[in-house]
């Protein structure tokens, strides 16, 4: 099956290398997307991609925070007016529009990525394809016998409610995770995602602290103050297809797996793609 059959006329969000970080942030928040393509304004060719994890890196003390720390002397308001090219990921995995679905899944699994730009034969950006697109297309092909426990991630890395934003950001970056469940005394109490960083970063509260130059009040905020607490979870013995349907209905990328109130795993879009691919 060709990619263009799967994504159809899917809208593509893009910015340019000179677009300000704050403008790209606003677009990501408004459109509720985890990644946005950076294209050359003249040729339309992909020059980079800005992801939620780039924002976590930029805000949370990863290598991209050096732009704030050294060039702008911790002045975040000044730093977010820098061009996107300063923090984008420029080593982008691309896929041609006439590629087969199997090639897309191969790249997702091999490169450990959740999405990529789709280009034409001249290298011009057409759209994007991500794990959610693949799952929506393949949902009717999920083996009815598969259970959540057959595909879920166990031994989950988690956060605690009292941890600071910058510490959780470093945990996410170190492990390459887009989200962390929040656990207190083995009980699941919330979840924090890379999207929450984008929303916080684009909020009036954060902007007001940036204006006063007090970036540490943002990075020291406790996770309990920004985490999602209305969590939808599943048990390990339900059918995988039912978990997939629930994720599609709610437009979410992860379901915590619980035994009572105790967290025992996660089932993510990546887990599902790998499981379908393997089976």
UniProtKB/TrEMBL annotation:
InterPro entries: CBS_dom, CBS_dom_sf, Diverse_CBS-Domain
Alphabetical list of SMART domains matching this protein: CBS
Gene3D superfamilies recorded: CBS-domain
CDD domains in the record: CBS_archAMPK_gamma-repeat1, CBS_archAMPK_gamma-repeat2
Keywords noted in UniProt: CBS domain, Repeat
Location of the CBS domain: 8-65, 88-144, 152-207, 227-279
Protein's name in the database: CBS domain-containing protein
